[in-house]
Design a protein that fits this description.
By secondary structure, the protein is an alpha+beta fold. About 55% of the residues lie in helices and about 15% in strands. The protein is built from 14 helices and 13 strands. Strands 3-2-1-6-5-4 form a six-stranded antiparallel β-sheet, with helices on both faces. It has a five-stranded mixed β-sheet with strand order 8-10-11-13-12. Strands 7-9 form a two-stranded antiparallel ribbon. A hairpin with a 2-residue loop joins strand 10 and strand 11. The radius of gyration is 38 Å and the shape is elongated. The N and C termini lie far apart (about 105 Å). About 0% of the residues have low confidence.
């Protein structure tokens, strides 16, 4: 009995000594371990923030020490195993793969044994064996807790992600590197009319079944679909596709897709999002019908009214009937104003629907502005306009017709809202790789609280005359035209002094020699 007691005591002392060493050397063991991880498993992975391990891992080492000291290395729920759970959560949050997590414990085991080797030289071989057995058991327990925690956390994240995906109104689909759909949410199943709950389905096969085409009716080849492009590394946004379902429904969808990479850069697949815009497309078609009605059915009789009123005005002037001629002139003015309102409505609607197409070309702003003023002379007081354009400016990249509308709107407002006879200045300068055009007037100015509303739809700010004329779409259309060019527009004003409206245009690229 005494011999057995002595053996047990020797074992306890050996375990106690090993535990003390681990407590004392926890930081040094951690430093060596992290350095080895940086040199091997995680070489070039600075984003993993391995420095976090230097502060967290000593608790893991001391947990192993406590398991040795108490002689219960296999207890999973022991308080000193908490560090293993925190370690797993940290590594999962950093995107560490499970295999790398297991490798971490293998290297940690080696570093712990390296630290113990020099301190157990006087311990008998049998006691060293006992220490090894208990240490391996404690580390296996810690590794088991980490992998279980990793798996449980991963399952929770997957469950949360599944809930988010299934509750998303847009259709979502995951394709693997072989372009097979492996996961879909309910919205995608209802939209596309197939499911992958039993087995993956080739995406190209389903697109062929749905006769996927462009809005112009051209069939989209399988290799040009957004998921296929994403598998080649592209990020694809809002590609419009028309799908013809077997039940006769025609769906208009916007499809976006992006590749999915593992932390090491390995392509895992791609994710595709499908947004059903069929209702929006139908509304756009209805709007186009209304625009056609406005631009044709209303303009046709209006053109006849305007032509007859102009003819009547001339004949009344020839007859010397001044009062009657003034009445006919009022009809002409009102018809012209109504025609301008119709044009603003049509253009605003087309700008909002993205139907505007620009004919971009280099435009030399100095001669362009001078020619525009010459053509506007019959209808505007252009003699009040002074042009300041320095020599040597590069040409702007713009659509001449749209640029004319921008400048005409700004000049018309400046001449209308400035003091009678006062000067209006049009200046151009190059700034930060852009051309900035400014139209400045001297007049009552704009109140500070009105400046943020200037470029909104149906905003009419100014005197009584300004409020009566137009729909308040002029500056809104001007803003949309400037933005279509990739520019910006803004206004600065001082009450009682005047206002300056400025907009930017890109510089035209130099043509190749």
């Amino acid at each position: 009995m005494a011999g057995t007691s002595n053996v047990a005591e020797a074992k306890r002392l050996a375990l106690q000594q090993a535990a003390d060493v681990l407590d004392r050397e926890a930081e040094a063991i951690t430093d060596h371990w992290v350095d080895r991880l940086l040199e091997s498993v995680y070489r070039g992975r600075a984003e993993l923030r391995l420095e976090d391990l230097r502060s967290q891992t000593p608790a893991l080492v001391r947990g192993v020490a406590e398991a040795l000291r108490r002689g219960v290395p296999e207890v999973l729920a022991a308080p000193w195993t908490a560090a293993a759970r925190e370690h797993a959560r940290l590594r999962l949050s950093q995107g560490v793969e499970l295999g790398d997590l297991v490798r971490e414990y293998q290297l940690l085991r080696q570093e712990i044994w390296h630290a113990l080797r020099q301190h157990l030289s006087e311990v008998s071989a049998l006691d060293v064996y006992d220490v090894a057995e208990q240490l391996d058991s404690a580390l296996d327990t810690m590794a088991t807790i980490s992998t279980n925690t990793y798996g449980a956390e991963l399952q929770r994240q997957i469950a949360r992600l599944d809930a988010v995906i299934d509750s998303t109104p847009d259709g979502l689909a995951i394709v693997d590197p072989k372009a097979r759909v492996t996961r879909m949410n309910r919205a995608a199943e209802e939209m596309l009319g197939f499911s992958v709950r039993e087995q993956p389905v080739p995406f190209a096969q389903e697109m062929a079944r749905l006769h996927a085409s462009t809005p112009e009716g051209k069939e989209i080849p399988a290799e040009d679909t957004p998921p296929a492009r994403a598998l080649r590394g592209e990020v694809v946004e809002n590609v419009q596709m028309v799908l013809h379902r077997p039940d006769g429904r025609v769906l208009w969808v916007l499809v976006s897709a992006a590749p999915i990479y593992l932390p090491g850069g390995t392509l895992l697949g791609a994710v595709a999002a499908f947004r059903d815009v069929t209702a929006q497309h139908e509304l756009e078609e209805q709007r186009e019908d209304i625009l056609r009605a406005i631009s044709h059915d209303l303009r046709s009789p209006l053109t006849a009214i305007l032509g007859q009123a102009q003819l009547l005005e001339r004949r009344l002037a020839q007859a010397g009937l001044e009062q009657e001629r003034a009445n006919a002139e009022a009809i002409v003015t009102s018809a012209q104003r109504m025609n301008a309102m119709i044009q603003d409505l049509v253009e605003a609607a087309r700008l909002e629907s993205g139907q505007l197409k620009l004919n971009l070309q280099p435009v030399d702003l100095g001669p362009f502005i001078s020619d525009l003023l010459r053509r506007l002379a019959p209808v505007m007081e252009v003699r009040r306009v002074r042009v300041v354009v320095p020599e040597g400016l590069p040409p702007a990249l713009a659509d001449p017709g749209r640029l004319e509308r921008i400048l005409t709107n700004l000049l018309s407002n400046a001449l209308k809202y400035s003091w009678p006879g006062s000067e209006v200045t049009v200046s151009v300068q190059q700034r930060n790789g852009e051309l900035v055009t400014s139209v400045s007037d001297r007049g009552p100015g704009i109140a500070p609280q009105d400046l943020p509303k200037l470029f909104q739809r149906y905003t009419r700010i100014g005197g009584e005359e300004g409020r009566r004329n137009g729909l308040g779409l002029g500056l809104y259309i001007t803003r949309k035209l400037v933005e279509a060019h990739g520019g910006r527009i803004w206004a600065e004003s001082q009450v009682g002094v005047g206002s300056t409206f400025s907009f930017t245009l890109p510089v035209a690229p130099r043509s190749s020699p």
